[in-house]
Amino acid sequence: MSKELSYTIEEVAQLLKVSKLTIYDLVKKGELPVFRVGRQMRMDAKDLDKYIKNHKTTTSQVPIAELHRPQTKNSPNLVISGQDIVLDILGKYIEKYSTYKTLRSYTGSLNSLISMYNGECDIVSLHLFDGDTGEYNLPYIKKILVGHSYLLLNLLSRKAGFYVQKGNPLNIQTWTDLNQEHVKMINREKGSGARILLDEQLRMNHLQPKNIRGYEQEETSHLSVASSVSTGGADVGVGIEKAAKIVGIDFIPLITERYDLIILKTPENEKLISTVKEILSSHPFQSEINSLGDYDYSQTGSIIYET
């Protein structure tokens, strides 16, 4: 048998610089073929090369900085920024019910909001906790989108908390438990919603990041953090419940976060806003969210704030 080079899902995610959830979604859709060795999925290098060649002109699945959208008034391209799989579902519905071609950027909440201010994306998903008000998203939006009119819509609510190893052997329950010498954490990248939640909680609990073991070690997705805890690379990480269930570790819920969408209110975006509002309020879209589990869609589509 000839030896063919193959990759694990994690290696493919690292090569394409996207989250493993993105790769799993592409596999599920049949866009990336895989084979199994025991319980592990692998991908032939030639199949990955073929996928890359076939998508060189579409510019999808790349970071914001690499998205070269035509900057024309009637451009059909639409950039949706954020990491949750629900955003991929939203993109599918937008393409079905409009003429837009949706492009995905898997960038953290704060960095995405700044990109919107710079005109680099059209729909941004946010889960930014403000410790002073106890509120999500709006305090950050008001400071960053100065001079802009915008619409803030609820996408869903979800639990955020700690990823811990099976059985939680170190009995990690609260934010102050991170401040123990024998506890090693894995962090998220700067600008992500999970990183901001952690930093705000450390500030509120008068804890110094320099005293948190592993604080400087970063991963770029919920799934990567959960995987690090699963393999013993860390004892604890911060993220959402969904990734813990995918990886098969325990989850300690600490807060219910509001996951919102923001769109700038411009004449060019009138049709987009109307389309997104209809999709979020539709039964098929909400049913698809419900089928994923671990999401609260009771407020999906509701207007949180607008200027």
From TrEMBL:
Residues 95-280 form the PBP domain. Gene3D superfamilies: Periplasmic binding protein-like II. This is Helix-turn-helix transcriptional regulator. It holds the Pfam family HTH_17. Residues 7-55 form the Helix-turn-helix domain. PANTHER family: BLL2305 PROTEIN. InterPro entries: DNA-bd_dom_put_sf, HTH_17, PBP_domain, SinI_DNA-bd. SUPFAM superfamilies: Periplasmic binding protein-like II, Putative DNA-binding domain.
